[in-house]
Amino acid sequence: MADATTSGAMQSPQQLGVTTAGLLGGGVIGGGWAARFLINGIDVQLFDPDPDAERKVDEMLANARRAWTALTDAPLPKRGSLTRAATPQDAATDVQFVQESAPENEQIKRSLLSAASEAAGPDVIFGSSTSGILPTLLQSDMTHPERLVVGHPFNPVYLLPLVEVCPGKATSADVVARAAAIYRSMGMKPLVLQHEIDGFVADRLLEALWREALWLVNDGVATVEQVDDAIRYGAGLRWASMGTMLTYRIAGGEGGMRHFMEQFGPALQWPWSKLTDVPELTDELLDRIEQQSDAQAAGADVRELERLRDDCLVGVLQGLRGRNYAAGAVLKEYETSLAQRGADASS
What we know:
- By secondary structure, the chain is an alpha/beta fold.
- The protein folds into 2 domains: 4-200, Rossmann fold, CATH 3.40.50.720; 202-338, Orthogonal Bundle (N-(1-d-carboxylethyl)-l-norvaline Dehydrogenase, domain 2), CATH 1.10.1040.
- The chain is built from 13 helices and 8 strands.
- It has helices at 28-39, 53-71, 88-91, 106-119, 135-138, 173-185, 202-218, 224-242, 245-251, 256-264, 283-297, 302-322, 327-346, and strands spanning 20-24, 43-47, 82-84, 97-100, 125-128, 148-152, 162-167, 189-192.
- The radius of gyration is 21 Å and the shape is globular.
């Protein structure tokens, strides 16, 4: 299966036939998707039973607009409109793309996807934001299940470019290519998986780190802030550009990856981590994590922390753009496409 992210010049969502999207869920991820679609000039029909969903999404949109104003000078299209849908069927009616971002519960997701797929046209692509549920399970109750892929993003969806695109057993190759192209048209980096696996790629890596972090806090070895400091002042800075494997290759010096593996490979047998186990999430451990996390936040509410995070991400993305490397190369390609779309619109 070819990676559709590297073929030809980037087209706009509208050139790919996407002018309206239906969103199922408006939480942290769904709200981020709403911002990503709206910033790209796509109208959004949002279904979420939470009575506060509209307020929460509006607050996220304000943060997204603030971040994008600082991120790029490229001409953005006229922002899409946001409307509230009363049902999943309403959200999926007269749209060209549906993104599901409901809570991580298989039955809830399957029910929403089933209902929405009955109302959507047969060619409408469905993406699920699931962090790890297999797409074959999610598509099993759908009308035309061949049009579903996992489109797993990362928070904040409106800034981080990675989206894991994973097909289920019934998914057609054409849908995978079309979904990847649509995500790419919105300034994202589709990572197209050839086979489905629980947790996909990125979350399997993150889960290993998360398990070890919980053990360090549980055993009193480190506080939650020390865990974060160990990443943000060290390896995290390298990971932003080099990832894990290339970082280790460089650590091997002139001998490359083989030298690194020969030197440090034996340490993999040492009892340094507890990757296949997890501490019991007792009230005591949860209280400790909550109290330490509150102290780390130093009184800042979630919107303040989101803006701080966004400002830091904008700086990193712009720095990488200056080198035309990693996530910065994705941003630069997207800006070039925006400039061309603006020139075409004014000619």
